[in-house]
Specification:
single chain; 259 residues; alpha/beta; Double Stranded RNA Binding Domain; 4 helices; 31% helix
């Protein structure tokens, strides 16, 4: 009976955390990029020619009270390279250069995107906002294939990468998309206990895949990089779908206007 109770609490907590993935972290894009106008006069159409050359601008938002620690500069560069490479794989936008703004304070005011586009010599900007939240709770971990259990910790990371394509001449938002991902880190309460830990799972999307961090001390950072890279890859795919959907809406609107 005691054994059944020991499993019930982690299971319930895990299910509750998985259920939060759709809403956590909340969108932060509107803090940095003005929303598109809804009136006909304010609607900006996508460029007629493609691919659209753009400068990728990366910034990290940590305004949420439960925000995970920010990624160091080299990790942000790695995520930027992942996103740039995914977008450039035949998508309608081609990234020509990357600008990393790093962690921004809560009271930070977004720059004039038109001025930044002129400084970068870019006709368009793809402004990407990265954010993530984390929660950690105690669990019992099996050591290898044995029935022996060891006290440990489970850390869940929810990462969000969202982006807006901005016309460098007008500063208007032309397109937006987001990508979300979740990853889980399991680790014993102390290092060196088992060769199987620490380990990162891509829960719930790919629970069988395992990623082993190079060090126990750096496992949490590896978790954040893995989750954000997954979110960035999803953002790239969703950006293409958003482009297609926007093109279809513009086409239907043009047909209706010509009648």
């Amino acid at each position: 009976m005691r054994r059944g109770r020991s499993w019930s609490v982690p299971l319930v907590v895990s299910l509750m955390l998985v259920g939060c993935v759709a809403a956590s972290p909340p969108s932060r894009l509107n803090r940095y990029v003005e929303t598109a106008e809804t009136g006909e006069e304010g609607v900006s159409r996508l460029p007629a020619s493609r691919p659209v050359p753009a400068a990728l601008v990366i910034l990290s938002d940590r305004s949420d009270p439960e925000s995970a620690p920010g990624l160091p500069e080299d990790a942000q560069t790695r995520v930027a390279e992942t996103l740039s490479a995914q977008i450039n794989r035949g998508y309608p936008i081609v990234i020509e250069r990357v600008v990393t703004l790093g962690d921004v304070p809560e009271a930070w005011t977004a720059p004039d995107w038109r001025q930044l586009a002129r400084q970068q010599g870019a006709s368009h900007l793809l402004v990407a906002v990265l954010s993530s939240t984390e929660q950690e709770f105690p669990v019992s971990l099996f050591l290898g294939w044995t029935t022996h259990r060891q006290p440990g910790l489970r850390r869940d990371n929810w990462s969000l990468a969202e982006a807006a394509l901005i016309d460098g001449r007008t500063g208007r938002r032309l397109l937006q998309a987001e990508g979300r991902a979740m990853a889980t880190l399991d680790r014993p309460a102390a290092p060196g206990i088992s060769q199987w830990y620490p380990v990162i799972y891509l829960r719930p999307q790919d629970p069988e895949r395992r990623i082993w961090p190079p060090t126990y001390e750096g496992a949490a950072l590896t978790l954040r990089v893995v989750a954000m890279e997954q979110a960035a890859m999803r953002l790239a795919g969703n950006l293409q779908r958003a482009w297609i959907e926007q093109r279809e809406r513009e086409s239907l609107h043009g047909e209706a206007a010509s009648r």
